[in-house]
Design goal:
206 residues, alpha+beta, 60s Ribosomal Protein L30, Chain: A, four-stranded mixed sheet, 4 helices, OmpA-like_sf
Length: 206
């Protein structure tokens, strides 16, 4: 009987201890739980006096490169870590509406060579500096590619991500609305946009 009584006491002790541990697990946090937004953010990288492209060009200054590596890259990795279902990162180049042929005389012919060289730049086999824009649409993709190249060359986990370069040319304002006809020099419209996307299943319509 004594053995049975001891066993019952042990079972009661185990039950109480288990209940106590479960209660601890369901304890409410001291402060509000910060939940991530349902959708990842859109990162805008506007032109500034320190981080900008030369008129009509897409080459990055050393200071610009450093800013991409030390500021933009960590932010991208932070978002990718927070949102597990991101499949692709879109890097979009936006320009103002100033025509390329009015930018500077050094772009003499204004004949685009992107059709012959764009794939090589995208594969990292040719520098963006070898590209010659013939339009703002060309310039937008060149600048997006410059940022993509710099991110990939920075090494680490970001080089394994699906980075895609696109151009919006002068079509959209910062709020996503269609841009008005404006051919003036406007730094506020020149920017790089980063979007994080989840790709759906491909459907082919014939």
């Amino acid at each position: 009987m004594q053995i049975r009584s001891n066993m019952e006491q042990a079972e009661i002790f185990v039950f109480i201890a288990s209940f106590f541990l479960i209660a601890l697990g369901f304890k409410e946090p001291d402060g509000p739980v910060k939940k991530p937004s349902e959708h990842p953010p859109i990162i805008l990288f506007p032109e500034s006096s320190r981080y900008n492209f030369r008129s009509g060009r897409a080459e990055l200054s050393s200071e610009f490169r450093n800013h991409i590596r030390t500021k933009l890259k960590p932010k991208i990795l932070e978002v990718v870590k927070q949102y597990k279902d991101i499949d692709a990162i879109e890097v979009i180049g936006h320009t103002d509406g100033r025509p390329i042929n009015s930018v500077e005389q050094s772009i003499s012919s204004h004949n685009s060579n992107l059709d012959n060289n764009l794939e090589r730049v995208n594969l990292g086999k040719l520098s963006v500096s070898r590209l010659q824009p013939g339009s703002n649409t060309d310039l937008g993709i060149m600048r997006a590619l410059a940022v993509v190249q710099e991110l990939k060359q920075s090494g680490g986990g970001i080089s394994k991500l699906n980075l895609r370069a696109y151009s919006a040319g002068q079509l959209l304002l910062e709020d996503g609305q269609p841009a008005p006809i404006d051919t003036t020099d406007n730094p506020e419209r020149r920017r790089i946009e980063i979007r994080f996307t989840k790709l759906g299943r491909t459907q082919v319509f014939k």
